[in-house]
Amino acid sequence: MNFQTIFNQKFPQVEALAPGRVNLLGEHTDYNDGFVLPTAIPQQTVVQIGLSDDRMYHFYSENLDERVDMVEESFKSGEMQEEYARYIFGCIQVLKEVGYTISPINLYVKSSVPLGSGLSSSAALEVATIRGIRQLFNLPIDDVEIAQFAQKAEIQYAHVQCGIMDQMASSLADTEHMLFLDTRTLERRVLPLPEGAKIVVIDSGVPRTLAGSGYNERRAECEQAAQLLGVKALRDITDVSLVETLPEPLRRRARHVVTENNRVLEALQNVASLEQFGELMNASHASLRDDYEVSVPALDILVDILQKTPGVFGARLTGAGFGGATVALVAAGEEKNIAEKVLEQYNHAGYTGNILVGA
Fold first, then answer.
1. What CA–CA distance (Å, rounded) separates 269 from 336?
2. Is the pLDDT of residue 213 over 90?
3. Which residues of 91-123 are buried (b: 16+ CB within 10 A; e: fewer)?
4. Which residues of 249-285 are buried (b: 16+ CB within 10 A; e: fewer)?
5. Which residues share a beta bridge with 225?
């Protein structure tokens, strides 16, 4: 199948793409106005768009082999069930809400960003969609605004109370650098990966969905903790001892956020130190496992194998957790051998994973 056969049009008028991302440090800090350090991955989502010949919107997902044909009113009434279409139509709606005219379109999407692996397949879809719409309708919006519209679409239409990191990474990051981002001010800096290091990403084989996981619950706990501490967001707490007065589990949730923000800032000061960066990644996973409680046994086993493998400087879960993928910083030139060796041990332990980056 392709755009031409699905929509009976000769060709799409525009094509746009956006990458997934992997987060090296700064997990669950973005919706706390904190600091993050993601990078883009090679896998991308591609959308092809043309104007609709009728007054309906038509979306097709090649990966899911699902087609949605609809008028605007059917979405507003809550009739749409297909999850991927909610993201697309959400992007259209948030642009309309600020006054842009978006005529009905045909949109064909295909993606190599794995679903349910914590690599921001949703953000890649949103950013690619808005990029394509910007091009088709010549909208005067920049790449930061694309990320902001994409985040708004996910919150309002996919009902995931996400931060801005995934969309900013998909819109602004590349595969050769890290993107330091202050999610409160949107101050950002492009930094090189630690010298002599490459990234390996391995999927645990345990899928997760954000809206159905504890993600929104964790966000609510952080907001409650910030309120009890008398600050706008946990980003405003830098001394971890200040969270010790909180009741459980808020104490542990806040402790993770405060220490994780401090880890990102420490990495920023010592970005050339490969060993120290790896230690910060290891500490991040322990904090996500013990204080934030978003890991699962499969992720812990995979991370443990990675951390014990020669040539691996640090490893942690990446993304929201509750399943998904791990990221490791490894010696350059050894990424393929390390990834294959780790995957073999992981599979031997009774799990089924796969190499996403580093093969």
1. 29
2. no
3. bbbbbeeeebebebbbbbbbbbbbebbbbbbbb
4. ebebbbbbbbbbbbbbbbbeeebebbebbbbbbbbbb
5. none
List the catalytic residue out of 33, 166, 203, 291.
166
CATH number of the domain at 3-190, out of 3.30.230.10, 1.10.3210.10, 3.30.750.80, 1.10.10.10? 3.30.230.10
Q: Is 280 helix (H, G, I), strand (E, B) or coil?
A: helix
- Give the dihedral of Cα atoms 4, 9, 13, 19; nearest 10 deg: -30
What is the per-residue pLDDT across 76-102, written as a single tens digit (0 to 9) for each? 655 556 788 999 999 999 999 999 999
Which helix or strand (DSSP H or E) is residue 124 part of? Answer: helix 121-137
193-357: CATH class: alpha beta
Mapping DSSP onto H, E and C, the string for 171-230 reads HHCCCCEEEEEECCCCCEEEEECCCCEEEEEEECCCCCCCCCCCHHHHHHHHHHHHHHHC
What pLDDT is attached to residue 272?
67
The rounded Cα 158 to chain-centroid distance in angstroms is 14
- Number of C-beta neighbours around residue 230 at 10 A: 8
* CA separation, residue 212 to residues 150, 160, 162, 253, 268 (Å): 20, 9, 13, 19, 33
Residue appearing with tokens 């707490």: 237
* Prediction pTM value: 0.89
> Is position 166 annotated as part of the catalytic site?
yes
- What tokens does 326 get? 């791990």
Between CA 32 and CA 163 the distance in angstroms is 8
Q: Is 223 exposed, middle or buried (0-12, 13-18, 19+ CB in 10 A)?
A: middle
